[in-house]
Design brief:
Oligomer: single chain
Order of helices and strands: HEEEEEEEE
Distance between the termini: 69 Å
Strand content: 35-45%
Length: about 120
């Protein structure tokens, strides 16, 4: 009778360990690390000589959680950002922008599909 109790106890321990390992491996890791100020610019943006105020999209992320975003014009909006796995959200007083993190150097705005690349 004792051997069945020990085997059930061992089985329960193994199940607990497997469950914990599965839980910790399923946790999302942030795809983008902001350890210094990073500036992203719209890829392939062509300026229109008739519209000097169109500078394309731009995004600056700072380590303290502050973001400056220029959504296709010349006005810069100050806000905050949050990174969760492969998602980046930038919130300003005016609007909230959502991005998909493609790599450490590229992000894509979700609503309009604008690709931004880290400036060298």
């Amino acid at each position: 009778m004792t051997s069945k109790f020990i085997s059930l106890k061992t089985f329960a321990s193994i199940i607990s360990i497997v469950t914990l390992l599965t839980f910790f491996s399923a946790c999302k890791k942030d795809q983008l690390n902001i350890d210094s100020e990073k500036q992203f610019s719209e890829v392939g943006h062509k300026t229109d000589p008739l519209n000097p105020f169109d500078g394309g999209w731009g995004l600056t992320l700072k380590p303290d959680g502050v973001a400056d975003i220029t959504p296709g014009g010349d006005i810069v909006y100050r806000g905050t950002y949050k990174i969760s796995g492969k998602n980046l959200s930038v919130t300003t007083d005016q609007v909230k922008f959502k991005f998909e993190i493609l790599s450490q150097t590229e992000i894509k705005e979700k609503q309009y599909g604008i690709l931004l690349r880290l400036n060298p």
